[in-house]
Amino acid sequence: MTRHLRITRLFWSASIAAEMEYRSNFVLTFVTSAMMLGGAVLTLAVLFQHDYQMGGWTWPQALMVVAIYTILDGFQQTFLAPNRTRITELVREGTLDFVLLKPIDSQFWLSVYKISIWGLPNLVLGVAMLIYAGMRTRPPLDAGDYALGLPMIVLGVAILYALGYMLSTLTVWFIKMNNITYAMAALLEAGRYPIPAYPLPYRVFFTFVLPVAFMTTVPAQTMLGMSGSAVWIVGSLGVAVVMLIAARLFWRFALRYYTSASS
Amino acid sequence: MPVVVCDQLGKTYRVANKPPGLGGTLRHFVRRRYKDVEAVKDISFTIEPGEIVGFLGPNGAGKTTTLKMLTGLIHPSAGRCDVLGHTPFGRDRDFLRRITLVMGQKQQLIWDLPAMDSLRINAAVYDVPDRDAKARIDELAGLLDLDDELTRPVRKLSLGERMKCELVAALLHHPKVLFLDEPTLGLDVNAQTAVRRFLCEYNQKQGAAILLTSHYMADITALCDRVILIHQGALMYDGSLDGIIQRFAPFREVKVEFDSDVTESALRPYGEVESLDGRVARLLVRRDDLTQRIARLFNEQQVADLTVADPPIEDVIGKLFAEGAA
């Protein structure tokens, strides 16, 4: 475990150092990132003018979902998306061989290798929004509510990771898959607002087909102590575990294919 | 105890076959036709600890496929292989810690960063303690004449410098068996010599076995006492470098200097005329009647000087692969 932490630390410092190699690009990305963050805050401020309801959710409650969406999105941009892109590159260039020859779990290597600091502002914004929304709900959330919600967010992240990893695994067969990043961003986007605010067919789809509901809505419901949360908590745990195992098995299967087919 | 054992190893690929043209492309998209290609068939050999073996064959002969089977990157479709007592395809940690693969056309170093950063990662992945890692890097860098190249971004290095850094990264864990796929590809003569000298020293210091493919005959002649030739996936020869000439070159090269200019037609009875430049000619003469032909040459022509040599190994092997004869 300490070995894995050490390796992760080395990966990340190398990743950040590589990003900082190109100074003008670094400055430019910083500016874009700041502007996008400003845009996101502005949109929220505008929406705040009108105190409207969403599928039975009060505005502060809905804002909780938006906040969790923003946190997940930031997490995705920081930790998940860069690695997904890299898996595609490795498969196409054939340098995946080097990873497979290292005495370390290949899924671990491929999942934590890269980090992009440009998702961090979103992560911070999300946390700030969550705290703000928590103060505005009636009654305001306390530490216990957050403590209950945090594991649910972790499960949401796990589901998001597993889905994305399975999608990246497909590159072993299809080689060219440049749109994983967009597909995953769009998928998460569906969880930007409370799932109960959608019409029934969508709700079913986003719960049972693409488990978006578990990523954003369920953590918010848990924190808000909405009725029937217990079932959802168990469901969330179940979905996360199943998805993680599926991602693992699918990767193993893909490797068997890769190693018997590539030249 | 051999460190590498290949026993009737074989690999068959299924490849899609696309007919040319738009119609072909459409048909290819809807229904793919596959055919089986035998990349490697029935290859058997063993390598002892500390041996350096040259692995030769024209492009597409199956060299890389064999190396990939031996490193566990692909699964053999026939036969069996064993490296350091492990079945490579299991890719267990203990096996991976003791082997390495260097590919001249692919690189593992992080492009935007100095090689040192990649080396630190490799040290951690292979569980080499910091102090050992530093000593090993210094040693390997010393053997390769590397200095501040390790702290310059990899993208700013020349091909030769980059390959040297790749070698440091590939050998940091002191592997016992090295699989090298064209490690000198594209390098200039100086860099090639440096890499060869380095491999030789590493081999002696660590007692590591090396299986090396290369298109540069000089790599092979400088490093390998033993060579394995494969052609169209099948083993053609396994033995000493000199043995190739004995076995596959039925000709010797006779260089003759005459007292005066001669014509090509006058020389034809003695052997195949390779070159003729005024008074100096090079003839290819079959081994079995070499003495007889030379005796006739001395009798019938005004010979000033005469030397007999084996034809260059490059020519022999080149001819061999071109003919494809076993």
What is the element layout, followed by pairings?
The complex is a heterodimer of chains A (about 260) and B (about 325).
Chain A: H1 2-21, H2 23-49, H3 59-93, H4 96-100, H5 106-112, H6 120-136, H7 143-169, H8 171-174, H9 180-189, H10 200-209, H11 217-224, H12 229-261
Chain B: E1 4-16, H1 21-30, E2 34-47, E3 52-56, H2 63-71, E4 78-83, H3 93-96, E5 99-103, H4 115-125, H5 130-143, H6 159-171, E6 177-181, H7 189-206, E7 209-213, H8 217-223, E8 226-231, E9 234-240, H9 241-248, E10 251-258, H10 264-267, E11 272-277, E12 280-286, H11 290-300, E13 303-309, H12 313-323
Parallel strand pairs in B: 3-7, 3-8, 5-6, 6-7
Antiparallel strand pairs in B: 1-2, 1-4, 8-9, 10-12, 10-13, 11-12
Shape of chain B: globular
The CATH topology annotation of the largest domain in chain B reads as Rossmann fold
Give me the secondary-structure category of chain A: mainly alpha
The CATH class of the largest domain in chain B, by name, is Alpha Beta
Quaternary state reads heterodimer
SSE run of chain A? HHHHHHHHHHHH
- Give the radius of gyration of chain A: 20 Å
Number of structural domains of chain A: 1
Unreliable sequence segments of chain A: none
Q: Could you tell me the number of beta strands of chain B?
A: 13
Task: Report on the biggest sheet of chain A.
Answer: none
> Mean pLDDT score of chain B, rounded?
90
CA gyration radius of chain B, whole angstroms? 25 Å
User: How many structural domains can be distinguished in the coordinates of chain B?
Assistant: 2
Molecular shape of chain A: globular
Helix content of chain B: 25-40%
Note the run of SSEs of chain B as H and E. Answer: EHEEHEHEHHHEHEHEEHEHEEHEH
Strand residues, percent of chain A: under 5%
- Number of DSSP strand runs of chain A: 0
Helix content of chain A: over 70%
